[in-house]
Amino acid sequence: MPMEKTFNAAEAEARISALWLEAKAFAAGANAKPGRPAFSVMIPPPNVTGSLHMGHAFNNTLQDILTRWHRMQGDDTLWQPGTDHAGIATQMVTEREMAKAGEPSRRDIGRDAFTLKVWEQKQKSRGTIIGQLQRLGASCDWDREAFTMSGAPGAPQGEEGNFHDAVIKVFVDMYHKGLIYRGKRLVNWDPHFETAISDLEVENIEVAGHMWHFKYRLAGGETYDYVEKDAEGQVTLRETRDYISIATTRPETMLGDGAVAVHPSDERYAPIVGKMVHLPLCDRLIPIIADEYPDPTFGSGAVKITGAHDFNDYGVAKRANLPCYRLMDTRGAMRADGAPYEQAVARAREIAAGSPTTEAEVDSLNLVPEKYRGMDRFEARKAVIADINAIGLAVTTLIKETDPETGSEHLRLEPVVEAKKIMQPFGDRSKVVIEPMLTDQWFVDTAKIVEPALDAVRTGKTTIIPESGEKTYFHWLENIEPWCISRQLWWGHQIPVWYGLSIDAADFVDAEGDNALDQVELLTILGDGGYIDRESRFHCAATQDGVAERFRDDLAALPHPLNTARVVEVADRQTAVETFAAALADYTLSQDPTQLVYPVWRDPDVLDTWFSSGLWPIGTLGWPEQTPELQKYFPTSTLITGQDIIFFWVARMMMMQLAVVEDVPFKTVYLHGLVRDAKGKKMSKSLGNVIDPLEIIDDYGADALRFANAAMASLGGVLKLDTARIAGYRNFGTKLWNACRFAEMNGVWEGHSTQSAPPQASATVNKWIIGETAKAAAEVSEALENYRFDQAADTLYKFVWGKVCDWYVEFAKPLFDGEQAGETRETMAWVLDHCMILLHPMMPFITEELWSTTGTRAKLLVHTDWPDLPSHLIDAPSMAEMTWVTTLIDDIRSARTQVHVPAGLKLDLVATAMTDAAQTAWTQNEPLIKRLARIETLTRTDTAPKGAITVAAEGATFAIPLDGVIDIAEEKARLQKTLDKLGKEIGGLKGRLNTPAFAASAPEEVVEECRTNLAAREDEASKLRAAMARLVEIG
RNA sequence: GGGCGGUUAGCUCAGCGGUAGAGCACUACGUUGACAUCGUAGUGGCCACUGGUUCGAUCCCAGUACCGCCCA
Q1: pLDDT single digits (tens) A116-142
Q2: Chain A span 196-255 residues with beta carbon within 7 Å of strand B
Q3: Distance A316 CA to B70 C1' (A)
Q4: Complex ipTM
Q5: Which CATH class is domain A719-857?
Q6: A708: how many CB neighbours lie within 10 A of its CB?
Q7: A992 CB and strand B closer than 7 A
Q8: Measured distance CA(A241)–CA(A245) in Å, rounded
Q9: Superfamily assignment of A209-324+371-423 in CATH?
């Protein structure tokens, strides 16, 4: 059955995909040859609930090209697939689905039931993106598919695996090495998801905001001279003030102010630094302090300091040792918890006066006046502004108003409110305004693990390309902040830390000295309740059994019967307090020490998703077990990922792997940019310019999309995807398809089987195309070696279309009728085989299909050897001869069209001069030239006939007699144009050679090349001038 | 404000010391032994600007302008 005219991608792709999967062609080590190195790639795990977008398509195409290329070379190849549990995103998707189905909320059903729901969601979603990657042709070892939550408690059947164990083990190990700590710090709080998020999950967006100006009055009715000066030091304003003016974009936070700060160099406020001011709306006095942070040129130069709700203020507060009073709850509403305001503020005054306190106590104090308690933060803002205005503490300006009816003028004071663009932090998932919040969180002490990660790149153990990526990497790591790894979510790896009540031996007075507590003594503990106010103690271990042992060690130091208490797990601190109290009460009655329990509860938080994906390279290979895969494939060869993820993931994997297994996770990191639309715009749903890769695959086939991806992958380039370009590469596939179809029609495949060595060719044209093939193969290998996917694609495009299809197939046509038909068929089969092989990593489907429909094949193309062709196949004389032939054909064709010779008309050619070399080139390729240049005969004469057009070739001058046919003027114009071009070139070359310094300083070969070039140009020009002279004679 | 990059044909991009390239678009012609998802020929460029280094700069260096991206 003859081949179809085009490749039917829609029909073939699924079939070929199934063929590969069935043959387990992508399994780790498939097609590996002894003695070859390992090559491994970790897929950047896509979000399990996600679907394939253009960025994935691009990224995975590059990984697949490398993987297929190495596999064909016989390397022991692993491309590790899998997905990421994506904490917030997956929890969000599940909650949304539940709400849509009208189901009860996660808080209604509880943590365990909700986690099960998320697992269901995961299993439902998982197939989507995996199937989409397979449609793209991704040659991952699909049997090894990993998941960052595999093996977690509650994981359903089919989700076994060891990733969870690995993550927990790393946490525990790092904790015990002192690399992880717990602390109260200001974090980015997402009031929608009610969790901390990392800096990197915050988008700072410029929005239209306002700046309000408030007056804080000096305590005790004090006043000072406020003086403003201009640049020359001239006094521009002097007045007596009893207040300091502050500017803020967030008035509601003033309730928690701890101070007003001014720059130490600010003369305006120097007299009042150290004095106290009344905090409006609150019954507190706060100090004016000096700090480097305020910018004297910005606003009034005085800044209110709210340590618990602003990152800069937090820094100032820490330096000045100010208490940080938290104002909001987890949903971003003003606090309504704790003691009444009067009581809280009384305690705050004591603290301000120097009464000792703890971080925990400060955090427990709710300094929000009753009026604002429970208000949403934005509502509270309005209320605060209104109240400040009402008590006359807003900075005002005089406004002159004219009554429209009476025309009378009057003055009015109006609060100063500046409209101002402000940068506001938004959660990248929730899109709500992020609230800096002082909370207890877990941190990785990145400063302690960053050095090896920096060194690995500095010493070249790991290379980041393009190089600018290394600069970004250094810049970020050299200024690294502690990494907040706890998240207040339910979906994720729960932190392996358990807490217990702090019962200290010091609490107990063993009055009788019998080393046992009697009823009275126990009641004292209960009554005192000191342990309730104390911060909990905690231990970290992989399991509850592990921590129980440590808690028992703590208890051992206590008097009997507490030292025998059983450690039991309860839900939370509240339950623990109740359980412990009940147990003590029970003991006082029963005196049975075996009934005494010590309750512990687990930290409810989960780990940041990036903490677990930070272990992707070792976790997927079976660590902590020393599996054969770990031995073979780690460190991995290449990581291909988006440059936007260098901080999120790349840097963290570097730090984590080096901290855990003391080796780099990968040798090369290839970073690429965001895939944009044809105009360079970010693809977004709201712009409506999203290109869905699956639609592209439907319309043009996966190969076209893949080739386009490769072609635009220049190092550091901007990725603009244009469907016109994809269509072009679909056409490219069709071109190859039809060359093979042509070969089929000419019996090229009959009896053909895969040959690695080229046939022994005698015809120049065959030797030439074999040489071109060897050249292309070498160039493609070199380009891929250097991650220049664009160059590899470009080389292949030019070779297959520009050399094989445009010239070789045309040359072969006449040869099929002659003596060299046999070798030409063999050569064509070999050349086309190599087109398929070389294109396979980029266009796997069409090439695999062609492979199976042509010749006899021992193996699937996916496992066929990548060529390593010797350079002697590039035969210089053949190359030169074919260049002569193709140039001559080009020139004749060009001349013909320019003087309007009908395309179909066959002409006679006259050679007026020919060197031996030119004569040989002609003779050997006569049928080819005649056919392609549409020449009937070649004759030799000494002088060109009148009214002929002239074509100059190297070592020959040809004329085409067109007596009476050509337009003399037009031919003159044509010659003149060519002469002008030559003249320009000759001018340049001469100018250069005539500069004495050139000959003196330029390398010899450059000078030599310049001379020969000049000679050739001048020779050609003289031929054309002669032709011009003849034209002048007749016309 | 800090960091990183970009500015080359109408569009999208290569090239990065030695005569300006590709694809797409455009124009003219074309049923030539596979391919109209095609063929042949052609039009189109002060390589952002200003200096410097060099025998020679689109390419290296410095500055300017404009445009991106990341981080504050």
Answers
A1: 888 888 888 777 888 889 999 999 999
A2: 199-200, 202-204
A3: 27
A4: 0.94
A5: mainly alpha
A6: 28
A7: yes
A8: 10
A9: Valyl/Leucyl/Isoleucyl-tRNA synthetase, editing domain (3.90.740.10)
